[in-house]
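To illustrate the input format used throughout this study, we show a single complete record. The first block contains the structure-token representation of the backbone; no residue identities are included at this stage. The design step must infer an amino acid for every position from geometry alone.
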């Protein structure tokens, strides 16, 4: 014979909901990290140029620098010659821009 269950209170239910939501957030964050790592690997690989060409129409101008995609707006380019192979531009200093 099983033990009688303790009735759940609303506080118990809220605690369980909060626990499940936090677990979901951790899983989503882990998945985002995994996808980001894959994307960085692909952008550093042999097919990086083809991938950038495919991504260019769907990546906004604001995020283009993350992928090393050049933008034609206002003559400015997100792709720079001193950018690392991974697509992320190198940080600039005041001395370098002078």
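Output of the design step:
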């Amino acid at each position: 014979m099983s033990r009688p269950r303790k009735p759940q209170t609303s506080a118990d239910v809220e605690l369980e909901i909060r626990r499940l939501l936090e677990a979901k957030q951790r899983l989503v964050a882990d998945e985002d990290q995994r996808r980001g790592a894959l994307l960085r690997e692909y952008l550093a690989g042999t097919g990086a140029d083809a991938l950038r060409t495919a991504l260019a129409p769907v990546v906004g101008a604001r995020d283009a620098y993350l992928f090393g995609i050049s933008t034609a707006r206002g003559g400015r380019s997100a792709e720079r010659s001193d950018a690392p192979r991974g697509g992320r531009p190198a940080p600039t200093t005041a001395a370098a821009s002078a």
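Structural context for interpreting the output: The chain is about 50% helix and 0% strand. The first helix runs from residue 10 to 44.
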